[in-house]
Every structure is written in structure tokens, then in C-alpha cells.
């Protein structure tokens, strides 16, 4: 390729943008009762998916979401070159067991709740470089599996502070194909995040831990692509959509951007804020988990781009990089955020 696609420190603008050909979404019951419920492909009436335990249920969600994405894209497993997928659990057990039946070469990813952004970025790079024609990007989470691993057993009935977010039960899977093929939207570029540690130690306030990472990625994207303040505030991006900062983290990001002279509240969105109705569903600060941004991507972001409501979006899933080991040892909670530039087809 003649054009230098790497831009600045951490961004890529694809000369021939890969396309998102199809997407499949599977949600839990609470998510189905939220404002986006009618847009999910499948809302499960049983959060255990008929399985014996929560972990098996999350694996079943992955299998179903992947199957839906392939069916909607009129593709078979044999036509998929690679899968980039991940979840929140130790050793990626939801992905390992959920992807086993797909028979697709797998790259297991852990970016915490930023995993869908990481998967889309790596998948787009793979297709753009010619290493495959069709790649699956997928991420899942489950309220009960995350609570069991990171917080308290469900039967404990602990109180949750208002800063806490609710881990989304759901999975989103997207098929990425080559430039020029029919699709929902194109991946115009990416900005890969780096670890940002703001010293936050409160595991019940993930928004505060992740907002500095989201801020870093957004600012890196603007710097790398030489997007001016006037261009940004003039609508360069119709929306900058973070993954799961929730109400507190979204406000923190807006404040950080304001300190740089950027008034962004008018075009900032957050998947964790959008997925639940905070007036009717007591989820405190909003939603979180790998499945949060993956579900909102499939149910809201991509349809709005396809319909022409938005022409260009910066999708920035955010992740808190803690583990039960690091937290119990008193470590801080580093964050990371991966940016994906999604554009209307034909641009």
C-alpha cells in the first residue's frame, strides 16, 4: 500500500477501511427490560440459559451471539479466518468454552471492559493487512459471573454504593470483512490505548478509574489525526461514545476535556448510561462489563450509522485492569481505552 496508514503515536487510518458486515446481540433479562431491549437480537428469559451454572451460561451466550452474526452475514464457520474474543473471567473461561464449538482459530483477549474495542481494532488490522477475509470480534460479560469473581456471592446480599455500576449480562459479536463488501458501517481507523493509572483504589467506582484512560485515548486520537478544537466542536465526530464509565465517569471525562478547553458534553455518550433506564431500573451509576459496549454497539451505534443519523463516531470502550489478586494486595486500578472510528458506508 502506498499511503502510510500509521498516524502519530498510536493511531491508524486505513487506506481501504474494513467493514462490519453483520452483528449479533444476546442479552439478559434486565438488559432486555431497558431502553434498548427491543433492538437486541435475542433477550434471554433465563439468565442461566438453561445451564447448570453462570459461567456455562456466559459461554452459551457467546456461542449464540456468534451464530447470529454468522447467520445474518450469510456466512459459515469455515469462512471465518479468525476470532478475536474475550470476557472478564479468569483465564477467559467464558470465551474458551464458548468458542470451542465454533471451530474458528481464536485469539483470546483480555482488555477488561474495553475488550470489544480491542477486538474490533485487531480484527480490522488483520483484514486490512490481507491475513483474512472474515474475522469475528466478540465480547461478553455476565452479572452473576462477575459478582462471584470480583465482588461478593449473590446470596450475600451486600449493599452497593451509588458509584457502583451493574455488570451487563450480554454478548455482542461482529463480523469484519474486507473493504468494498456490503456492510453496516466501515472501520475507518483506530487509536490504541495505553495503560493509565490515576491511583484510584475504589473497586466500586470504576468510572473514576477508567475516565483518565478514556481522556488519554480521546486526546491521543485528536493529536494523531490533527483534529482541531474547532473541527471537534463543529461536529467532526457526531458522537464520542465511551464504553462503561457510567454517570460518574462520563461526567469526569467531560470535566477532564473541559480542562483542555473542549466542551464535549453535547456529543459525549456512554454505553453504560444508555443501556439501562436509571429511573425505572436501580442500577446506580449505570452499566459495565465487556457485554455493555458490545450490546450498545449492535443495538444502537451501528444502526444509527447505517441509517445515516450519524456519519462518523469515535467508539471508545473502557476497561478497568484489576484482578482479585491485585485488588486484595492493595494495588491501584489502572484503566485502558481503545478507540475505533466508525463511519457510514460510502464515505
CATH topology of the largest domain: Peroxisomal Thiolase, Chain A, domain 1
User: Which sequence of SSEs, written as H and E, runs from N to C?
Assistant: EEEHEHEHEHEHEEEHHEHEHEHEEHEE
Shape: globular
Average pLDDT for all residues: 90
Gyration radius over CA: 18 Å
Q: Which range does the strand content fall in?
A: 15-25%
What do these coordinates show?
With 347 residues, the protein is α/β, with parallel strands linked by helices. The protein has 2 domains: 18-177, Peroxisomal Thiolase, Chain A, domain 1; 185-343, Stage V sporulation protein AD (Peroxisomal Thiolase, Chain A, domain 1, 3-Layer(aba) Sandwich), CATH 3.40.47. Helices cover 33% and strands 22% of the residues. The chain has 11 helices and 17 strands. It has helices spanning 29-32, 54-72, 93-99, 115-128, 143-150, 206-224, 229-233, 246-259, 271-274, 290-306, 324-328; strands at residues 6-7, 11-13, 19-27, 42-43, 82-86, 106-109, 134-141, 166-167, 170-177, 185-191, 239-242, 268-270, 287-288, 312-316, 318-320, 335-337, 339-343. Strands 1, 2, 3, 4, 5, 6, 7, 9, 10, 11, 12, 14 and 17 form a 13-stranded mixed β-sheet that branches. A hairpin with a 3-residue loop joins strand 1 and strand 2 (11-13). Helix 2 packs across helix 3 (93-99) and helix 6 packs across helix 8 (246-259). The radius of gyration is 18 Å and the shape is globular. The model has no long low-confidence stretch (mean pLDDT 90).
